Amino acid sequence: MKNGIFHHTLGGLNAGLQVWHIAASPLITCDAQDECANVLARRDLQEFDYIPVTRKGKIIGVLERDKAKSEGTVEEQMRTLEESLLVAAQTPLLWFIRELGNEPYRLVVKDGFIDGIVTRSDLQKLPVRLLTFAYITQLEMLMAQAVRHANLSENQWLDLLNQNRRKKIFKKREILQIQRLDPPLLELTEFSDKAIIVNKLYGFGIDFKHDMKRIKELRNKIAHAATYVDTEQEVQNFVEIIRKMDYWINELSKIIIDENRYPEKEHHYLNSSEAHF
Hints:
Distance between the termini: 28 Å
Low-confidence stretches: 268-275
Largest sheet: 4 strands, mixed
Helix content: 40-55%
Strand order of the largest sheet: 1-2-3-4
Number of domains: 2
Order of helices and strands: HEHEEHEEHEEHHHHHH
Radius of gyration: 24 Å
Shape: elongated
């Protein structure tokens, strides 16, 4: 089963990509007794919003630039080290993304020592993009399997798309046939096509439609190397989309493995104008 192969592949990718792969290291630090004004003015720290604070070589807190004042020592201004700020270097990246809370950064513990930091901007790095794109691909493959599971003819599921989308699919086939290629029509559909078909077949409703639109928008940003997590709200949206994919991957998987789960004879057909993604 293709999905089984992809599931194992994604599992290996998730296990192989860890928090350490997106962490900034080595750390540039300041001392607890440093004057806060001097630290905030240091050239080598200008690009950092979160500055680890040390005492006798050990990290005891973090100076947060947006909350720090110029008066007094760093120790008087810093945030004291606490468990919620720590993450193990070997933590699988996908698990870490799912569990991201309201903390804008985490200190990374490796071999018993704090040796890195992960901030919001690190979610833009290549390992996160690779993993997220692979996860979206798994979702799209499951949607295709759910369409096949319905045992419809090509004409039947094509009828669930509007005329414009059908024309584009046939045009793709014409171009490929000129090149002596003739893949199944379902392989010529786009992410949004599959989402429309699946929603009409299985009646997932407005939540599915809304979630697929958000997932498609995220995929496009990743594919075109665009910024997708620049603010705290965007981070929360990103985490929510990952959790939504968890849910729909699970729902689609249940359909595919259930031999008795087919669309009802009267499919949940919608007017094609009602189902844009």
